[in-house]
Amino acid sequence: MSMLKKSLTTVAVVGALLTGVFATPAAAADPKTCPKGKVCGWSGKNRTGTRTVLSVTPGCDTFTGARSVSNQTSYRIEFWHITPGTGCGVGKKLITLKPRTYSDDTGGTVTGIAVYGG
User: Fold this and answer.
1) What is the pTM of this model?
2) Sheet arrangement for strand 76-82
């Protein structure tokens, strides 16, 4: 490869990086999406407001107050409004999501989740 061709290739790659040709996909930057393998919750309905992104394993956990949720894991997840100080499964079960589904309105504020293995 000639020196001129190498220089032009280098300039093209640098130019592409500076103009964003190699930028991350739009879906990854979209605040209304949830990354693959994660559970997300938004403070507002219809995936609006502040987004929380979690990695989960089977079991119970608290969850930051969410009004819309996404389950992009391989687990089945129950979203609860738990009674403070009582733990998982005590309170009001709001919604159950199968893997790779979402809900734009949980019917209440999610404060806990139960994650069930594959």
Assistant:
1) 0.72
2) 59-66, 110-116, 76-82, 91-97
Amino acid at 37: G
Domains in the chain and their CATH numbers? 1-30 (no CATH), 34-116 (2.60.20.10)
pLDDT in tens, 19-29: 333 333 444 55
CA distances from residue 57 to 34, 39, 60, 113 in whole angstroms, order as listed? 17, 10, 9, 11
Which residue(s) pair with 113 in the sheet? Answer: 61, 79
Other C-beta atoms lying within 10 Å of the C-beta of residue 41:
25
